[in-house]
Amino acid sequence: MGFVERYASTLEEVAVCCAAAKRDVKEVRVVAVSKTVGMEAVANAIEANAHDFGENRPDSLVEKASHFPEENWHFIGNIQSRRIPDIVRYATLVHSLYQRHHVAKFDAAAAALDKVQDVLLEVNVSGEASKSGLAPADVASMLAFCEDFSHVRVRGLMTMAPQGDTKVARRCFEDLARLQRELKTTLTPDRAAVFNELSMGMSEDWREAIAAGATIVRIGRALFDDTFEKDPYPGEDTTR
Ligand SMILES: *Cc1c(COP(=O)(O)O)cnc(C)c1O
After folding, report:
1. How distant, in Å, are the alpha carbons of 19, 191, 205, 229 from that of 202?
2. Atom 11 in ligand 1: which residue has the minimum CA distance?
3. Whether this model's pTM surpasses 0.90
4. Ligand 1 pocket: which of 202, 204, 216, 224 to mutate (most atoms within 8 A of CB)
5. Measuring CA to CA, which of 33, 119, 182, 184 is 20 to 30 A from 3?
6. Range 3-224: architecture per CATH
């Protein structure tokens, strides 16, 4: 199986998960995380009708997005101040904003390009020390802080779940969805109207994320990696 087949079967399964959750499949966008692959693989994915791509390094974002400017590019990686102008030039949506001192820099870079930068606030729902993001209790004040910047528009929240246990992941996604609903009621009508996105779910846990309300799933290995196994122990007899 190549990307074409994996992408098609993933979209089919997304539709099944949406139906099971009584959700409209149009609410869910699949971002193909292309961070581990080169230009040819991206070109091949575009041929297969993928038009949203995720990158976690500014250099790769610049290289790929400048080559394929018609596609939607999602920046999902660690943000460094000096790279913010590059990110703003190419990113449709930035998923990983959480530091206050970056907000003015995004605002200035976006203003210089006469753009409003759509962003998500990254939340560390699980509290794992290895993960970045705002503590859930700090998101409301970050949202209020962002309101003063007219070239930055907060579209929703993003998280990464702990790996290895889909039940734990599901709880993490449900917590983020609840937080998003609660925060939405505190926003002005204008801000609330665009605060709709929940970016959560990766190759191993996107099904749980859709069940919990994800509007964007970020899938890398399950689309691009020929060796990815949904079941990490294929062939092992679990009935014994
Ligand atoms: C790499 C990455 C993904 C995709 O992970 P897979 O497990 O390969 O699907 C999603 N989100 C972020 C932030 C990533 O860095």
Report:
1. 19, 27, 5, 13
2. 218
3. yes
4. 202
5. 119
6. Alpha-Beta Barrel (3.20)
